[in-house]
UniProtKB/TrEMBL annotation:
The keyword Metal-binding does not apply. SMART domains: S1. It comes from the Bacteria. GO terms for molecular function: mRNA binding; structural constituent of ribosome. Gene3D superfamilies: Nucleic acid-binding proteins (2.40.50.140). One of its GO terms (biological process) is translation. It comes from Roseicyclus persicicus. This is 30S ribosomal protein S1. Residues 26-92, 110-176, 197-265, 282-352, 369-439, 456-524 form the S1 motif domain. Keywords: Repeat, Ribonucleoprotein, Ribosomal protein, RNA-binding. NCBIfam families: PRK06299.1-2 (NF004952), PRK06299.1-5 (NF004955), rpsA (TIGR00717). InterPro entries: NA-bd_OB-fold, Ribos_protein_bS1-like, Ribosomal_bS1, Ribosomal_protein_S1-like, S1_domain. Binds mRNA; thus facilitating recognition of the initiation point. It is needed to translate mRNA with a short Shine-Dalgarno (SD) purine-rich sequence. Belongs to the bacterial ribosomal protein bS1 family.
Amino acid sequence: MCAKATMEEFEALLNESFEIDTPDEGSVVKGKVIAIEAGQAIIDVGYKMEGRIDLKEFANPGEAPTIAVGDEVEVYLRNVENARGEAVLSREMARREAAWDRLEKAYAAEERVDGAIFGRVKGGFTVDLGGAVAFLPGSQVDVRPVRDAGPLMGLKQPFQILKMDRRRGNIVVSRRAILEESRAEQRAEVIGKLNEGDVVDGVVKNITEYGAFVDLGGVDGLLHVTDMAWRRVNDPKEILSIGETVKVQVIKVNKDTHRISLGMKQLQDDPWDSVERKFPLESVHTGRVTNITDYGAFVELEPGVEGLVHVSEMSWTKKNVHPGKIVSTSQEVEVMVLEIDTQKRRVSLGLKQTMRNPWEVFEETHPVGTVVEGEVKNITEFGLFVGLPGDIDGMVHLSDLTWEGRGEDVIGEYRKGDVVKAVVTEVDTDKERISLSIKAVEGDPFAEAIGGVKRGSIITVTVTAIEDGGIEVEYEGMKSFIRRSDLSRDRSEQRPERFQKGDKVDVRVTNVDPKTRRLGLSIKAREIAEEKEAVEQYGSSDSGASLGDILGAALKRDE
């Protein structure tokens, strides 16, 4: 009977155990800490199941575990039974599941969540959000790049969830979004109190090539480089340093975009108010070259007042040359004030005006007719350029290279660097031109040859050649040609063959052309002139005397 009762009791207990629902694997269950030993907590999860969990799973990042015997905790049931007959439990996975439920609700409601940065990974940091691990990109840590994130590690603080995917286990959070929101509120409060024209103190937070950002107590304003001083500021670091406290004036406030423009020079006297009094037109001053461009150089006359020396006003002689080859930055130069426009805050300066015009100096020291000597600087299709005193050039035109032949034929005999002598034939200071003549150095052989010969003169020439169209003659080495129609007054005598080479013939000069270096000669013109003269002296056709009678009388008189 006793054995039968024992079997019945066992069967009843077995049936009771089957009726109890065993929790599903992969679910979160409640358990109780029944012991702590060897760095592990032994958890009783009921259903006659116990499991072990490392104590570190009960600690927040950077903190010691806070767990004691008797505490009730939620754990994740990974397996009902392992090889040792124990349940496989995880506190971390339980916290993660609970955290994901909580985070999904916060993400949907766009609410902030608390977490702590506990590790560094490529491109950012890891954040514990109370059981779920999120990624914090480096760009989302602060409103400005963070060089040292050490002070932020382990610090519990709010974050904004940017993106999350439970299936993939990805969460991306931002600390910067929280800071920007709080800063926006602070900025709105500060900006609401600022007005244009206010003078405030600020701290220089950052310096760039175009200016500096000044903290006005929770809101930053931009101090542009052009508003730092009245003078040109090439590098803001010349006058400002990070952390420095400066006094600035509010130039402009945009309360919609929260942008503030600041100025320092506005707190100083404007030097342009006295420019016309200090720098009258045509006055000469010493200034410092501050900047060089392709079109000229800027010269500082005094702090805050700069003028432009245009490239055309830099040198009398150096044309089409970059200003950097004439002056250098920081060089002190003498300049003349050419024009002032106070409205546009512009001063036009001249560098060359402080020196005498070299063409005027040359004209004074080398009047027309002076023989000069210089080096051939350039050879062109229309002549030579010769270097002259004063760093200027004179031009020898092709027509002034030689008396004989064409300039085109002899220009090839010259080379750059040759030293030549020439006569100054013209100086035009307005056009900055000097004309020279190489052929004039030795005098004009044509002028010397014809001497006092002029139009209407009777000269004796020598026949040097007989041609069908006339005869070639020579006078003092100068060749001329008499056409057939000019050989005689009578048509019957206009025959070239009646002359012999070497004959001496009297002719009348009808033209003297220095350009072509030719004499116009005519026997016919001489005969007509002689007849006219005889008629005037001895009679006329009205007196009844014949031409023979008149010429006979003239010949008798000559005898």
